């Protein structure tokens, strides 16, 4: 029985995959596409039988379930799928032939036909055998399967003069008809769709809410005769009067089916269902923030219909409001009615007219698509909107962000006296800071200066203005990153419009200038270019795709030559792709990245994108459907041929339609594991010839069944375009709701003013009645106008409501003419009319010199132009280094363009003209009635400075000016000075460059850091821009004297710039201050200082020693503990403890842990929670930990492992983080109550054992192949910990807690989880259950789960000790504590979890044994911190008891550590950008290299790994490569790259973390640039398992030499 169940599961799995149930992956579990899947013995028998069987034609079979029949000729042996069988098949018809295993399948014949086919002798099998003689077969096909469907996609049937309802059939002589009606008020419970069509023998599911069901009442049942030719689609009109009777307005549901199917024994006949709305009324609805405007008109005459009852119906079927339409058929519903939620949400607008007329608009449907009209712009605000700006777009952590907000109403006037707040939000969207505003003052403005945390997360931050009652009304975003300002401005000029031809060359001019004003002469310029697909190559051919969809061009790169700028700072680079891209089917482009090298080696870059055409003809395809094509219907495409400029060509284009069929073979490995492999076959369905010209050619396929299809277009025998598509799977035609015709509207060319009368010209596509609306944030006016075919003009009066501008909307409707124009036509148009805002715009000018000297005071005068007397005007002024602004291409604040600029159309337009049925299509049929009526870490300093100044808001004086003093810093460059002005009714802004420089700018360009032993060449540049000609002497020195002063001189003529190399040699790690002094003619003298860090060349090593010191004994740190460490880098902690568990060493070890996932952050900061005497550094670390954790909290309250929303943290880790934050809040840290409450709420489903509802956490357990963990274990430990954390907060579900104890405690394997249940029960006062749970926890200690990263025996023991003590069971805790403390390893061998939990245990059990002292030089101390290597220090135990002394030291190795592999290997390969290995001793400044790190694990266990690659000081990272760059990009030679969970390019290192299972190698890569000449240590890359320190790998260190 067990075997049968297993077999049944295997078969069901096979069926699911063979049916491609999950969408069909192209990946196979085996590389082979062999389709044989027998067991070995079966294969052997089959092979023996095959050898005895001759290759002969065996039988035929016919598939009749498709639009065209398929005949398959079966042979006794498999055929060759790659062979051409057409020469061996004779038939007097054009057919398509495809191999299907042992069958040759023929397509292209029609139903009801007979044909003769001959298989010729010599037809080969797959193994080379041949058919011995000709075989002739007579082919006879039956008729097409029956089809029943409705014509078109409409649902609205005009009530007056409607001849009938069009039914389409194939091979159906009569259909059964059933009509029901649904009460108007019940429509809100249904979705009114186009219904369904079902083929014979096929089950069709219709959603419950798309059928009338129990809401319907019977109207009619009978049959309709549908005569027609065999196998031909026939349209028959079902007579309205005979079926519907007197055609009453309302909602009907019509069902039709093949009446004769039952006679053939078919239980699933061909059938269709369709909603039909019978009405003579039409509605147009305009929805906006100002309300809902509705107009009613007649479908027959297009005239407005007044005095009708219009109701707004909610989702809950309640009448929200009823109003009688005005004489011109207009009704308005106020905005509050539209703001309801859930059941109060507006659903329908229903109109009831005279004579029972009825119509409705469903507000859940999409509004009209007006994207073809000029309605784009800034989003409309509902009431008040705010323009927010900062002084720049990028900041470093710890800097101050100045935010100013200007709040305006819909007309652009100040929104004063509104209370609210300015809010600063972190990249995860959570609040960092809030400044409360009692009211908006100073003409509706608000200002705040936000200081960023020094540990601010990198990423995009935002600031927003929130107003009470309105929420957020405006926001601004900015980046927080480690950046270095540019010194150069790079401008590129090239022809980017004319396509570059194959083999051609295009010149790019690069113009460089130093930001302090001098030309960038004598500088190196190079670059690289990539030939790639051009997105949207021909915008004039919207919707077309060019090229082969499944064989896209793979990008190729080439390097640009190195050139040098001339005396004016100009260089020309040729872009010559030569023959790259030759043969590509799609239009290409060349993206050229041009890099200019600053003095010192750093690069600034920009790019140009040039169209690139490698052929003369391109083919494009545009589908006539959205998503998938509809089943059993033709799929249509538009086909175009164009030249390289997109100009249409007249030419012959061959096309063919193919289908991809997939088959899956299952087989069983010797291990018993089932695997599968997939094979694919291509079937040609049909082909044809198209002749596109000025207009596109239409390609229409046959009616298609379910499947995966591709349309391929070729020119001159070469495939140039293809489009893959699915048939079925929810497809619908793109013309289901026809786009309206267009009305052209002509408006004034210039801005208009209030009170002005303007003329609007209407140029229609046909005559009709126009509804002319003026719209801003809502409908301002509406009128109806008769429009003749030649057009007309309308006069409109501009009012103040037009604000900064308004739209004119025209909807043109025609009447309905039965028999001539059975469907009334509708056309729409839109045009924007801007207001003239000259009177509300300040003419701002900045009065300041063009050039100032550094270190001087400057007064900037802001002139507001013609300011009216008594007008209160305010301003802000910012002056920011242009080199910072260029990094983000920051645009100066421009509030007038934002507030007074064009806004998007804030009105959605609804009507149902696109859902009208044609009641005149087809021949009238005869009805017959009858039947029943029943149914983290980095550099501490970098040698760069941020220059960004901000002042304001300030008030203007009575003279219309404001004067602001600016202290110009020590800086050579360009400041962009930006002023913003505002008053109650006006806005203005201006910006201007301000050059800041010494007469002779001098700069020392240092690397970002050095390492001990490095020798480097800094770059000194002295530019005599405006100084006297002569000798300039310079000296470079250090504060500590670590290098000998370097002196020299330049003889400079006017305008000359010279560079010199300054040799640097790095000493011990630390921060050094460099001073540059320059003196020259006429008393010129400057002095500038820079700070640079000497960072260790290798990651620090940590070493540990422990000794027992008896009473009266002494201790001297062992000298060999410090062997091989750089003395200046060594820091040592010597501490005493009364027990072997040394809390000081544990704390120090945790606090110096380098990495920072959420678990490590919490564990690292845990010691600080227990210190009442934290110093400033410790308080800062604790505060920054809290801030970082909160940055990783998502809106759902869950915490990410590395960043917000990464869903990589387990729910257990979530509980760990929440427990820490709660304790930090009790310790006085700034943990917002709202954030903690949100975190507790995220733990609630975890505590209930409902991990599937813990959306923000990773609740999955991977394959048992990679872990010993189980889903049950994860749920048990996560639920227990969450219950404990919630119980401590008073938020646990008591009944759930008791239930877990009573019913599940025996099932819980983890002793720590049992102890947490016990402690949680103690927290709610249930001591009996608590005692039992804790006792069981102690009894089961020793549990091991290697699949849980955080679990060890020692961690669990320490946690149980803590919980016992916390629950008041100190004796039990003490017994376990003293039993366990001798078993704990030294801190360097512990995981962060072990250290943190052990520290908690030590704190809980320190009573009576919490102090031990050492005596040094007569003074007692518990611990001693030494900088440098100890030199014989002695520590004595002057007490009466034995103490334990620990020595924990950290230092940088003086020699390169050897390569090692302890369970994991890491290798580092360095190549050039083309993949060639580079000689690291012959690099030159400006060279770019790719560093590839490959990791190889020895085991398959799932683990969290981190890799750290310290940079040599001469390299700087340009970019971290994405896996996509190595797949289809220019770096394919790298092979597959891994996407890291987190990857950072820091100043001095690359760091990545990844969770990985299995032992397949995986790689990361980044691009670096050689910046600083010199000789540098190239450290080895280091990787480790973050929770098993013994799993560790390091690559070899090398030397790198960079030539100038």
From TrEMBL:
Signal peptide, first to last residue: 1-23
One Pfam family this sequence matches: bMG6
One annotated GO molecular function: endopeptidase inhibitor activity
InterPro entries: A2M_bMG2 (IPR049120), A2M_N_BRD (IPR011625), A2MG_proteobact (IPR026284), Alpha_2_Macroglob_MG3 (IPR021868), Bact_A2M_MG5 (IPR041203), Bact_A2M_MG6 (IPR041462), Bact_MG10 (IPR041246), Macroglobln_a2 (IPR001599)
UniProt key word Signal: yes
PROSITE patterns, alphabetized: PROKAR_LIPOPROTEIN
Extent of Polar residues compositional bias: 30-52
The entry's keywords: Signal
Region (Disordered): 25-53
Domain (Alpha-2-macroglobulin bait region): residue spans on this chain: 743-887
Name recorded for this polypeptide: Alpha-2-macroglobulin family protein
């Amino acid at each position: 029985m067990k075997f049968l169940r297993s077999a049944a599961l295997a078969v069901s799995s096979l069926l699911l995959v063979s049916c491609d149930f999950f969408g069909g992956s192209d990946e196979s579990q085996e590389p082979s596409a062999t389709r044989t899947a027998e067991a070995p013995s079966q294969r052997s028998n089959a092979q023996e039988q095959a050898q005895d069987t001759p290759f002969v034609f065996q039988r035929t079979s016919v598939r009749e379930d498709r639009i065209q029949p398929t005949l398959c000729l079966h042979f006794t042996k498999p055929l060759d799928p790659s062979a051409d069988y057409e020469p061996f098949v004779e038939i007097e018809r054009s057919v398509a032939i495809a191999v299907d295993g042992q069958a040759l399948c023929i397509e292209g014949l029609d139903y009801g036909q007979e044909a003769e086919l001959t298989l010729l002798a010599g037809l080969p099998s797959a193994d080379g055998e041949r058919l011995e003689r000709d075989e002739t077969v007579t082919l006879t096909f039956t008729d097409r399967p029956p089809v029943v469907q409705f014509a078109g996609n409409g649902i609205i049937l005009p009530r007056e003069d409607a001849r009938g309802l069009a039914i389409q059939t194939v091979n159906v002589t009569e259909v059964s008809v059933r009509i029901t009606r649904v009460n108007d008020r019940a429509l809100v419970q249904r979705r009114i769709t186009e219904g369904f069509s079902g083929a014979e023998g096929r089950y069709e599911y219709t959603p419950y809410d798309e059928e009338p069901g129990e809401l319907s009442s019977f109207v009619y049942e009978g049959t309709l005769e549908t005569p027609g030719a065999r196998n031909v689609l026939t349209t028959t009109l079902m007579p309205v009067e005979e079926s519907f009777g007197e055609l009453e307005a309302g909602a009907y549901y019509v069902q039709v089916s093949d009446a004769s199917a039952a006679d053939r024994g078919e239980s699933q006949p061909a059938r269709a269902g369709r909603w039909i709305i019978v009405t003579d009324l039409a509605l147009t609805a305009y929805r906006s923030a100002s309300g809902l405007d509705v107009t009613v008109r007649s479908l027959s005459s297009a005239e407005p219909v007044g005095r009708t009852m219009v109701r707004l119906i909610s989702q809950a079927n309640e009448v929200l409001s009823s109003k009688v339409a005005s004489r011109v058929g207009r009704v308005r519903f106020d905005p509050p009615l539209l703001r309801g939620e859930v059941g109060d949400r507006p659903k329908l607008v229903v109109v009831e007219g005279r004579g029972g007329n009825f119509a409705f608009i469903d507000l859940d449907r999409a509004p009209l698509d007006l994207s073809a009209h000029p309605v784009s712009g800034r989003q409309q605000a509902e009431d008040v909107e705010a323009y927010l700006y900062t002084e720049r777009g990028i900041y470093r952590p710890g800097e101050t962000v100045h935010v100013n907000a200007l709040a305006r109403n819909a007309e652009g006037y100040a929104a004063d006296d509104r209370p609210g707040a300015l809010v600063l939000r972190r990249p995860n969207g959570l609040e960092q800071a809030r400044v409360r505003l009692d009211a908006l003052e100073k003409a509706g403005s608000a200002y705040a200066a936000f200081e960023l945390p020094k540990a601010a997360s990198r990423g995009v931050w935002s600031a927003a203005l929130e107003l009470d009652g309105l929420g957020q009304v405006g926001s601004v975003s900015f980046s927080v990153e480690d950046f270095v300002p540019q010194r150069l401005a790079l401008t590129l000029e090239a022809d980017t419009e004319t396509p570059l031809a194959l083999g051609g060359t295009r010149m790019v001019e690069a113009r460089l200038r130093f930001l302090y004003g001098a030309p960038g002469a004598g500088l190196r310029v190079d670059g690289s270019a990539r030939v790639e697909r051009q997105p949207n190559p021909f915008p004039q051919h919207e919707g077309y795709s060019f090229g082969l969809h499944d064989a896209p061009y793979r990008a190729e790169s080439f390097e640009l030559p190195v050139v040098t700028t001339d005396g004016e700072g100009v260089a020309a680079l040729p872009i010559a792709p030569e023959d790259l891209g030759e043969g590509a089917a799609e239009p290409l482009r060349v993206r050229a990245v041009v890099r200019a090298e600053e003095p010192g080696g750093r690069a600034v870059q920009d790019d140009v994108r040039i169209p690139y055409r490698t052929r003369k003809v391109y083919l494009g395809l545009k589908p006539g459907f959205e998503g998938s094509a509809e089943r059993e219907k033709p799929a249509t495409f538009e086909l175009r041929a164009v030249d390289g400029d997109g100009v249409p060509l007249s030419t012959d284009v061959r096309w063919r339609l193919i289908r991809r069929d997939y088959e899956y073979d299952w087989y069983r490995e010797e291990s018993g594991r089932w695997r599968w492999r997939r094979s694919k076959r291509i079937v040609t369905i049909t082909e044809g010839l198209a002749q596109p010209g000025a207009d596109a050619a239409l390609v229409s396929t046959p009616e298609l069944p379910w499947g995966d299809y591709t349309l391929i277009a070729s020119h001159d025998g070469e495939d140039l375009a293809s489009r893959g598509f699915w048939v079925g799977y929810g497809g619908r035609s793109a013309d289901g709701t026809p786009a309206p015709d267009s009305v052209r509207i002509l408006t004034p060319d210039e801005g208009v003013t209030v009170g002005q009368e303007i003329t609007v010209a209407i140029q229609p596509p046909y005559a009709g009645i126009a509804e002319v609306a003026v719209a801003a944030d809502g409908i301002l006016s509406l009128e109806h106008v008769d429009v003749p075919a030649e057009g007309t003009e309308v006069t409109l009066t501009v009012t103040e409501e037009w604000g900064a501008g308004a739209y004119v909307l025209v909807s043109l409707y025609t009447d309905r003419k039965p028999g001539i124009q059975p469907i009334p036509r509708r056309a729409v148009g839109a045009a924007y009319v801007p207001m003239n805002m000259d009177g509300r715009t300040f003419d701002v000018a900045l009065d300041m010199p063009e050039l100032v000297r550094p270190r001087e005071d400057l007064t900037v005068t802001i002139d507001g132009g013609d300011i009216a007397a008594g007008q209160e005007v305010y301003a802000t002024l910012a002056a920011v280094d242009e080199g910072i602004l260029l990094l983000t291409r920051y645009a100066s604040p421009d509030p007038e363009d934002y507030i007074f600029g064009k806004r998007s159309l804030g009105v959605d337009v609804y009507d149902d003209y696109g859902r009208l049925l044609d009641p005149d299509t087809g021949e009238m049929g005869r009805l017959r009635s009858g039947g029943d009526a029943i149914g983290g870490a980095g550099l501490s300093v970098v040698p760069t400075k941020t220059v960004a100044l901000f002042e304001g808001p300030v008030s203007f004086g009575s003279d219309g000016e404001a004067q602001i003093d600016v202290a110009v810093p020590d800086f050579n460059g360009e400041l962009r000075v930006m002023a913003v002005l505002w008053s109650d009714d006006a806005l203005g802004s201006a910006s201007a460059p301000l050059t800041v420089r010494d007469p002779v700018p001098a700069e020392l360009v240092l690397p970002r850091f050095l390492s001990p032993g490095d020798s480097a060449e800094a770059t000194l540049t002295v530019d005599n821009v405006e100084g006297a000609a002569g000798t300039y002497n310079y000296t470079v020195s250090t504060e500590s004297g670590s290098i000998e002063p370097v002196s020299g001189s330049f003889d400079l003529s006017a305008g000359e710039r010279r560079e010199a190399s300054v040799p640097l040699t790095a000493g011990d790690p630390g921060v050094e201050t460099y001073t540059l002094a320059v003196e020259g003619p006429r008393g010129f003298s400057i002095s500038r200082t820079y700070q640079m860090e000497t960072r260790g060349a290798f990651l620090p090593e940590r070493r540990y020693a422990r000794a027992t010191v008896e009473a009266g004994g002494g201790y001297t740190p062992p000298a060999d503990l410090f062997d091989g460490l750089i003395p200046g880098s060594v820091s040592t902690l010597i501490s005493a403890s009364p027990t072997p568990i040394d809390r000081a060493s544990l704390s120090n070890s945790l606090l110096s842990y380098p990495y920072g996932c959420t678990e490590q952050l919490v564990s690292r900061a845990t010691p600080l929670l227990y210190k009442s005497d934290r110093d400033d550094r410790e308080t800062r670390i604790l505060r920054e930990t809290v801030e970082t954790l909160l940055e990783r909290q998502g809106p759902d309250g869950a915490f990410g492992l590395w960043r917000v929303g990464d869903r990589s943290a387990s729910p257990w880790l979530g509980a760990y983080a929440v427990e820490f934050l709660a304790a930090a809040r009790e310790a006085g840290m700034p943990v917002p109550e709202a954030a903690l409450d949100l975190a507790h709420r995220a733990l609630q489903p975890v505590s209930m054992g409902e991990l599937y509802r813990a959306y923000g956490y990773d609740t999955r357990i991977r394959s048992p192949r990679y872990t010993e963990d189980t889903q049950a274990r994860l749920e048990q430990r996560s639920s227990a910990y969450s219950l404990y954390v919630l119980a401590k907060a008073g938020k646990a579900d008591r009944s759930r807690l008791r239930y877990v104890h009573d019913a599940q405690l025996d099932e819980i394997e983890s002793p720590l989880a049992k102890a947490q249940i016990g402690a949680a029960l103690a927290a709610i006062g249930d001591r009996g259950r608590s005692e039992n749970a804790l006792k069981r926890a102690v009894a089961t200690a020793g549990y091991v789960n290697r699949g849980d990263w955080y679990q060890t025996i020692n961690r669990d023991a320490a946690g149980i000790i803590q919980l016992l003590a916390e629950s008041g069971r100190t004796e039990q805790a003490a017994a376990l504590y003293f039993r366990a403390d001798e078993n704990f390893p030294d801190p360097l061998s512990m995981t962060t979890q072990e250290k943190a939990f052990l520290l908690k245990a030590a704190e809980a059990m320190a009573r009576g044994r919490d102090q031990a002292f050492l005596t040094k030089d007569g003074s007692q101390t518990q611990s001693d911190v030494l900088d440098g290597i100890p030199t014989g220090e002695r520590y004595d135990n002057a007490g009466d008891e034995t103490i334990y002394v620990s020595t924990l030291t950290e230092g940088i190795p003086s020699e390169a550590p050897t390569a090692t592999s302890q369970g994991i290997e890491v290798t580092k390969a360095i190549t050039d950008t083309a993949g060639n290995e580079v000689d690291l001793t012959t690099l030159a400044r400006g060279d770019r290299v790719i560093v590839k790190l490959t990791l190889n694990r020895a085991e398959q266990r799932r683990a969290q790994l981190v890799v750290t690659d310290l940079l040599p000081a001469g390299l700087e990272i340009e970019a971290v490569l994405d896996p996509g760059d190595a797949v289809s990009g220019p770096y394919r030679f790298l092979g597959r790259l891994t996407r890291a969970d987190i990857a950072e390019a820091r100043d001095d290192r690359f760091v990545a973390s990844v969770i990985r299972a299995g032992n397949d190698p995986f790689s990361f890569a980044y691009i670096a640039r050689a910046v600083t000449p010199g000789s540098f240590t190239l450290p080895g890359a280091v990787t480790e398992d973050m929770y098993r320190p013994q799993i560790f790998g390091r690559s070899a260190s090398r030397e790198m030499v960079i030539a100038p």
